[in-house]
Amino acid sequence: MVPQIGISVQAFRGVGADAGPAVTLPDPAEQAAQRPAAAPKVQATPTAPAAPAAPEKRSLPLAPALPPEQTESVPGMKDNVLLRTALAELGEGASNEQLIGVLRQMLQGHLYLRVHGDARTQISEGKPLSIAVVRDGERAFMLAFSSAIAVRDSVQRETEPTATSAVAQPVTAVLQQVVSGEFSGLIIDNASGPHRAVFPVEVLERALQQADADMTIKALLAAPREKDTAQKVGNALGSASIWVAVNDGTGGAPVGIAEARTTDGRRFLQVFSHPLEIVALGRGDKPLQFSPERLAKVLTEHAEIAGVLVDSAGPSIVVERDALSSVLVLAIDIEA
User: Fold this and answer.
1) If I label 319, which of 21, 136, 187, 282 is the partner at 20 to 30 A Cα–Cα?
2) Beta strands in 264-310 (DSSP E)
3) How far is CA 289 from CA 65, 84, 112, 211, 229, in A?
4) Residues in CB range of 291: below 8 A, 6 or more apart
5) Does domain 67-209 have CATH number 3.40.1350.90?
6) What is the pTM of this model?
7) Phi then psi for 281, rounded to 5 degrees?
C-alpha cells in the first residue's frame, strides 16, 4: 500500500455531491454492439464544430490548434497549461461537458503530487512516496495538481501545514496508481475553489482503457511544435489505435466518417487520440476505434484524401500523406 498523509476535508471544501455531476464516457461494449460490419463510407462533414451549447450548459471552449506557451508558476517546475486553462473555466456547479473538457486535457503531460516530507529523499532511498490524500469517511481521494503553485496553495490552506514537497509524474502513472490503489477517485487542484475537479475511479479506469498506453500522440500535440512534429505524429499513427467520428445519419445527414476540408478544397480524415476528443466537439458523433491497419485501408482506398487532421478540438495538427508512410505501408502488408 502506498504511504498516505491525510489532508483535512475542510481544505478541499467537501467531496460530496457539490463536487460536480457524474462524468460519463462512451462504453466500448455499447460501441461494439452499434459498430457496422463494414468500415463506414468516408463522408464529408462540416469542418466547423456545432453551434455553441446553450448558455446554461457552460461548455468549455475548444482549444487553439497550437499548444499553449509553456509556463513555470514556480521556477524550474513546468505547469500543465492545458489542464490549468481548462480548470480556470470551471465555476460552481460545473456541467458534465465542462468536466469532460477538463478530463480530456488532463490526459497528456504530467501531474504534480503533493508529498509529505522530501520527495527526492524518498525516491533516492527507494521508498514509496508519502502522497497526500483527502479522506471523507471510508472514501479516500488522491490529490493531484496542474502546477507547483497549486500544490503551494493546497499547503497554505491547511491549519497545521507540514513539511511538503511536490513531484511531477506522468499522468498515466498517476491514473494507474488511483485505479490500482484503494482510492475512490482523484481530486485536481483541491484548494482552487470552484476551479477544481473530482473524478471517480470508475471514470479514470475507463479513460485509461480507451487511451494509448503511452499517450504518445497527446504528448506530441501538447509539446511545442518542431519541424518534425507532424512526421513524429505520423509515425505514432502507424502503431497506435486511434478513433474516428462516425455520423449515424441523425438529422438526415449521410452516414460516414467525419472529414475536414481546407479552404483550397483538400480533404483530411479526422482522427482522434481518445474518444473524449470526439465528445468535446459536441456534434453528437459516435466514437469508433480504428486500428492502424484499418486507417491504412481507408487512406489507400481513398487516394483523394490528402492526410489526416488529428484532435480537431485542439491542440491539433494536420499530417499530410508524405508523413504517413508508417501507416500506408500497412496496407501493402495486408494486400501481400
Assistant:
1) 282
2) 267-272, 286-290, 305-310
3) 23, 28, 31, 11, 23
4) 241
5) yes
6) 0.79
7) -70, -20
